[in-house]
Specification:
The protein has 2 domains: 146 residues, Aspartate Aminotransferase, domain 1 (Alpha-Beta Complex); 254 residues, Aspartate Aminotransferase, domain 2, CATH 3.40.640.10. 36% of the residues lie in helices and 16% in strands. The chain contains 13 helices and 16 strands. The strands form 4 sheets. The protein has a 7-stranded mixed beta sheet, with helices on both faces.
């Protein structure tokens, strides 16, 4: 099929994320990718400022990751995880336990971030059942959050400003505190309200779930690290399972290996995904403490009631281990600081608000973005962006050069002006 025929078939038959099937948004044909760039038919090579939705931290066609996949293919691509195990899964679990915040030493391998959050919520619910509190079935969280698109995940996303408001009448009704303040804001005032809310609903609550330090697709809002200690204190005071959703923030994105590290706080359960495999294959992991595992195992089922068909996929585990080795053997922290310095140029853009944290840059306009115009303007500057709502943002690969980051800033500026 020619490029035109591929795009025509795509428009008629393929659903894309958050896109109408009857009136689909335009798509562009990618024909290759290497390093920090993707090749778009009719456009050429452009810097991928999105790192494939924040996952391709090492860029594309990295020789170390390519070789890890090839080596594993020579052994096996997949085998069921029920009753069986294999070296790639065991080695990945060992690496994750070694890297994770203290106490997180039990690992469940899921096949996507949303599934990982579902599993984490099940862990909290089953733990409460196993410790004699079956009446605790709700979750405490904060407004502005996003935790995935599957059913229970939607229930802990922002109930009004999020993407899932249309389902509010069908979803479990969770408890929402106010969004944490911006860096430099009044943490004490926010914490007082949050503590009071937790106390009011404590006897109903199984767990507390948040995105630490940075709320992602709910609006790209950073907040002070001190808030993580508040979450830990509230969970301890009321016997809640504290879940940190680090799917977007994990593996260095905010400046520490995990966002939890910024406050020296360990959750009871932590979800990771996205950058786990360097963007090569879909894989997520849910880590929990031995205490959570023991409580869960004492529940009526005696086992964690979840088991994806592709759980522990050897190909994904092998490339994830290679990605973690690549990350930890590199100066990833220096790269994130360097990218952060380059992204400070975004403050020169005349916009409603500009936020930079780690290797994340956000420009918030005072109106909804015209995605088509903004995308086209960025492409003219040699940058691929995917704005949403009133946000134009970047979470680029860590391998981006200083010139790449300057190009990204120029692309965001052009998109802001056009959109």
């Amino acid at each position: 099929m020619t490029p035109g025929e591929l795009l025509e078939f795509d428009r008629a038959h393929l659903w894309h994320p958050y896109t109408s099937m009857t009136d689909p948004a335009p798509t562009r044909l990618v024909t290759g990718a290497s390093g920090s760039r993707i090749t778009i038919d009719g456009v050429g090579d452009v810097v991928d400022a999105m790192a494939s939705w924040w996952s391709a931290i090492h860029g594309y066609r990295h020789p170390v990751l390519d070789e890890a996949v090839r080596r594993q293919l020579e052994r096996m691509s997949h085998v069921m995880f029920g009753g069986l195990t294999h070296k790639p899964a065991v080695e990945l679990a060992r690496r994750l336990v070694d890297l994770a915040p203290a106490g997180l030493d039990r690992v469940f391998l899921a096949d996507s971030g949303s599934v990982g959050v579902e599993v984490a919520m099940k862990m909290a619910l089953q733990h409460q059942r196993g410790t004699g509190h079956p009446e605790r079935t709700r979750f405490l969280t904060v407004r502005g959050g996003y935790h995935g698109d599957t059913f229970d995940c939607m229930s802990v996303c922002d109930p009004e400003g999020g993407m899932h408001a249309m389902w509010s009448g069908l979803l479990p009704q969770q408890v929402f505190g106010e969004r944490p303040p911006r860096p430099g804001g009044d943490v004490e005032a926010w914490a007082a309200g949050f503590r009071a809310l937790a106390a009011e609903h404590a006897d109903q609550l199984a767990g507390l779930i948040v995105e630490p330090l940075l709320q992602g697709a709910g609006g790209m809002h950073p907040y002070p690290a001190e808030c993580l200690a508040v979450f830990r204190d509230v969970a301890d005071e009321h016997g809640l399972v504290l879940i940190f959703d680090e799917i977007a923030t994990g593996f260095g994105r905010t400046g520490t290996l995990f966002a939890a590290d910024a406050a020296g706080v360990s959750p009871d359960v932590m979800c990771v995904g996205k950058a786990l495999t360097g963007g090569y294959l879909s894989l997520a992991a849910v880590l929990c403490t031995g205490e959570v595992a023991r409580g869960l195992s004492a529940s009526d089922s005696g086992v964690l009631m979840h088991g994806p068909t592709f759980m522990g996929n050897p190909l994904a585990c092998a490339v994830a281990s290679a990605s973690l080795d690549l990350l930890t053997s590199s100066d990833w922290a220096g790269d994130v600081r360097r990218i952060n310095r380059g992204l400070q140029a975004l403050h020169e853009i005349d916009a409603a608000d500009v936020r930079v944290l780690g290797a994340v840059g956000v420009v918030q306009l005072d109106h909804p973005v015209d995605v088509a115009k903004a995308t086209e303007a960025a492409l003219e500057q040699g940058v691929w962006l995917r704005p949403f709502r009133d946000l134009i943002y970047t979470m680029p690969p860590y391998v981006c050069s200083d010139d790449d980051i300057a190009t990204i800033c120029a692309g965001i500026a052009a998109a802001a002006e056009a959109g």
